[in-house]
Design goal:
Number of domains: 4
CATH superfamily of the largest domain: Cupredoxins -  blue copper proteins
Organism: [Candida] jaroonii
Radius of gyration: 25 Å
Protein name: Iron transport multicopper oxidase Fet5p
Distance between the termini: 67 Å
CATH class of the largest domain: Mainly Beta
CATH topology of the largest domain: Immunoglobulin-like
CATH architecture of the largest domain: Sandwich
Structural class: alpha+beta
Bound molecules: 2-acetamido-2-deoxy-beta-D-glucopyranose, copper (II) ion
Shape: globular
Largest sheet: 6 strands, mixed
Helix content: 10-25%
Number of strands: 30
Length: 623
Amino acid sequence: MLSWLFFLLTIVSASTKVYDFNITYVDANPDGVHERTVIGINGEWPVPTIRVKRNDRVIINVDNQLSENTSLHFHGLFQNGTNSMDGPQMVTQCPIPPGYQFTYNFTVDQVGTYWYHSHTGNQYGDGLRGFFIIEDDEPPFKYDEELTISVGDWYHKESGELMKKFLSRYNPTGAEPIPQNSLFNDSKNVTMEVKPDTTYFLRIVNMGLFTSQYLKLEHHTFTIVEIDGVYVEPTESESLLVGVAQRYGVLVTTKKSSSKNYRFINIIDRDMLDVLPPDLQLISTNYFVYDKSATLPEAYKGNSEKKYDEIVENLKIFDDFDLIPLSKEPLYDEPDYIISLDFQMDNLGDGVNYAFFNNISYTPPKVPTLYSVMSSGKYGSNVGIYGSNTNSFVIQSGEIVEIIVNNQDPGKHPFHLHGHTFQVIYRSEEGEDDDPIVYDPNNPEHDKLPEIPVSRDTVLVNPNGFVRLRFKADNPGVWFFHCHVDWHLEQGLAITLIESPEEIQKQTVPSNHFDACKPGNISTTGNAAGRTGKLEDWLDLTGEFLQPPPLPEGFTSKGYFAFLICTLVALYGLVTIYQYGMEDIKTVDNEEIMTRLNKLLNDHGALNEEGISLSSNLEENSI
Ligand SMILES: *[C@@H]1O[C@H](CO)[C@@H](O)[C@H](O)[C@H]1NC(C)=O
Ligand SMILES: *[C@@H]1O[C@H](CO)[C@@H](O)[C@H](O)[C@H]1NC(C)=O
Ligand SMILES: *[C@@H]1O[C@H](CO)[C@@H](O)[C@H](O)[C@H]1NC(C)=O
Ligand SMILES: *[C@@H]1O[C@H](CO)[C@@H](O)[C@H](O)[C@H]1NC(C)=O
Ligand SMILES: *[C@@H]1O[C@H](CO)[C@@H](O)[C@H](O)[C@H]1NC(C)=O
Ligand SMILES: *[C@@H]1O[C@H](CO)[C@@H](O)[C@H](O)[C@H]1NC(C)=O
Ligand SMILES: *[C@@H]1O[C@H](CO)[C@@H](O)[C@H](O)[C@H]1NC(C)=O
Ligand SMILES: *[C@@H]1O[C@H](CO)[C@@H](O)[C@H](O)[C@H]1NC(C)=O
Ligand SMILES: [Cu+2]
């Protein structure tokens, strides 16, 4: 009786929050160095914060007033029963075309620190991302005041332009564009006036496209209480490492009385950068200001390697793997279903560098995968209908699923699962480039698992190492699992999980979502190739979108790279710049490669024209 009454009360107290979002271009200069076009909402940038309470209904009326497609994802929200509101284009919806309206309509059954961002290409790098805070009326910790803080890397060029150069045969090593700056709450040199003897709850989100950031508030200690919307046992940490898309909720109690001010520094994780431009400031300084009349401590200047090493080596970060969820949810049982993913990067026949899970570079289907599920009836559990290049896996209700990611790449990667938090049950150390650490079921060390593992929705995987993640299939939907470095996502570093297709089919998709498919002539029914009919038609994928074919035989990616260097040297005399990879070139038969490549490039069109843009591309991307 009492619980029924309580239920009634919560329903009554829940409210509907309506947001009208006109998405437009605006000009902004957040780093004080370069004004550029960014994507704002209702003429403003930074974009508004969405702030709601558990059980609220959230309605977001999007009006796309851009000259490009868009979509919104609500990062970390489960969208339980509302898979069509999740946002990634061609996974759960069509891209919203320019001039179209589209409504996101869902209830939130979570609390904590989340964010929303465009899930169209790497568009959120243009600033279409903001806080999504779900307040808790009774948080399991005490604080006096709240501060929301975003960090992120920042590019001076627009995302689409950067992506075109990144995914180009003139960037065969897949060197990621280097950001020009880092931002702290979409600004720099931020001063935060604080009161003495006060406990602040800091909600920290990394909204960057690429780099993790370290955070440190000098002479203060962070107490971690929340990660990615999951409450954890309060745990002290001198500093934080926040990967892209990760969130940390931390408490900071200010000093009893203070006439001094303190530096709050954010540091770009240098290890993720292929080269370090001399003018990139790795360490940026912000302030906790106790006393406005007192002087501010000196800001860190430049990117001196020595200073960086000195600071980063002494950060004393508590490893997020060792945090314990407050729920004390024990380790899930042995998995019913294991998805083992080997991740690599390599070139395909168009010379572009792609990312692969099990040799597949994610290529979007012709029909959004959710719409394939909705229209497939009894064939929905047949993984064959979802395409050869969507890397799809069908999961049944109630299964314990384990995802193993073997990162055979020398980079750190933040992997994110939509629709769930996962238990991080094992994270290996960093391996060697020529000897990556790969999960070995016969190695008892790899099966030593924590009794109460940490749970979150985005996890950093160590270079040449692996992680094991587990979750329970209790949320029907089509869920994307991908690297949140958007450069890598666009290289194809994603898989599609189709969880409980029969249950998904009981959900509905509002008609304005289908309207968005019309201008692009995107079918809203059928398999990954848009075919419907009998089972054999559903399994016929003729005409689906596929990744490019492999490089011609005997034509290795190293050879391709070698050719590029040769061309560069010949055309522009750039002899000394790009040493990395050069050692491999000696063994390559250059003439053979040049003949083949010339033919290949000629088949694809203008070498000279692109060859010229190539030199500037290389300078900016600093391969
Ligand atoms: C931040 O401070 C530095 C000096 O420490 C200054 O060079 C820079 O212009 C400032 N940036 C902004 C946006 O105020
Ligand atoms: C959105 O744009 C439309 C048309 O440009 C305008 O009529 C409307 O007032 C705008 N809404 C908001 C909330 O700015
Ligand atoms: C939002 O969804 C609810 C539940 O399906 C529905 O009753 C309501 O009409 C929807 N509102 C809008 C504005 O689409
Ligand atoms: C950060 O920006 C958000 C809005 O984008 C604002 O609500 C918040 O107060 C800012 N935080 C600080 C510490 O200034
Ligand atoms: C990927 O391709 C390599 C080389 O062709 C092959 O050895 C390997 O088994 C493939 N991996 C998977 C998971 O298919
Ligand atoms: C989704 O809702 C169902 C019942 O409505 C519940 O059993 C399940 O735990 C929920 N899943 C998540 C991830 O919240
Ligand atoms: C926008 O999406 C449509 C499909 O709806 C696609 O044909 C078009 O190329 C996209 N536009 C851009 C600029 O990517
Ligand atoms: C739209 O797609 C259908 C079938 O998928 C095709 O027959 C038709 O020609 C297309 N229309 C345009 C304008 O591309
Ligand atoms: Cu990545």
